[in-house]
Amino acid sequence: MLNTKVIKVFYCCSNSTQDEQMRQKLEDHLINLKRQGMITNWHKRMISPGKEWESEIDTNLKTADIILVLISSDFTTSDYHWDVLAKQAMEQHKARTSRVITILLRPVDDSWKKAFPNVKVLPKDEKGERPITEWRPYDKAFKNISTGIREIVEELTDSTFLIKKILRSLRAIVIVVAKFALKVFLFVGTLTYSYLFRPSRSRPRDRFSNIFIKRIVLLLIGSIFILLILKKINILEMPSSAPQPAVNPIKTVNHIGWIWIGMVNKTSGSLSVGKKLILQPSNTKQFPSITPPIIPSPGTIVTIKDEINLMKEKSLSGKTILKLQKGEKLVILKVERFSKIEKNSPYIRLKAQVRQCNLNCNR
Length: 363
Fold this sequence. Notes:
- The chain is α/β, with parallel strands linked by helices.
- It folds into 3 domains: 7-160, Toll/interleukin-1 receptor homology (TIR) domain (Rossmann fold, 3-Layer(aba) Sandwich); 163-237; 256-356, no CATH class.
- The protein has helices spanning 17-29, 31-35, 53-62, 73-76, 79-94, 138-157, 161-196, 207-237, and strands spanning 7-12, 39-42, 66-71, 99-104, 120-122, 124-125, 128-129, 256-265, 290-291, 301-304, 308-311, 320-324, 329-337, 347-356.
- It has a 5-stranded parallel β-sheet with strand order 2-1-3-4-5, sandwiched between helices. It has a 5-stranded antiparallel β-sheet with strand order 8-14-13-10-9, with no helix packed on it. The chain has a two-stranded antiparallel sheet with strand order 6-7.
- It is flat.
């Protein structure tokens, strides 16, 4: 069954402007997975000013579920990207703690594949693996890549994925066999009809009535045959013993919206993950709304301290989606400053986009 784990996607991209533009384009094509709360993204441009960039990259790389290695000549010629990041990514892939997917951005010598044995390469079609720049338009390549990544995400979040994949393959085979059997049936039926049911010359008056009745009988037999085939196909769609998900529109909907999470000192200069949120005794309304009371990273699961509104808009002054109750768990999608910053205030107020988590949220 589906679980509520948010898949962390790490972009391993060179510093090339062209490569970075393609990375951004790919991120745009994966936006629906992000909106559905299935993935969260991380790339080096998300590093806050003043942070140790190597440490930040290493931490996020080691906690990634999917590592997208964006292959180009700029990537393979960079000692840091090739000898450090790519090597670490493959170690995690071999240890099965992460899944590496290579994205072929631009044409490059195939020798790079030796460093990525048994790794999925995208984009790929019936012609084989082709870099994005050889597709026209490029959006076809990005769609191919996003489809491949969605499949991996579903595999990592759905324990029945392999069974469903096998059943889809069996269903395709059954459909082909059914079509072939139908053609054989019609061919044999036509021959049988022309041989056994041709009009009798000795009984010309019964000619039309006999033809009509015999055609009806043949049609009924053919219909029964086709229905039996379709029934078999439906049976293969999902085994009867497989557990069916409970239908509960209230408990299974995971709303996405914005909440207030707290404040940090304006003098800190950056929104560092793990920094403690300020507890201001003079104003309880400004207390942190989450536990643990620190700036969370995307994909973190937090607990609501007290009842709070889940808002549709970033401003938190618009429409309320619902009331979040004390003890409810949420998945953090992103953390941002409030749009309006009070000039005289020594604090920075923070908001977070979150996904409601009604099922088991443990990662």
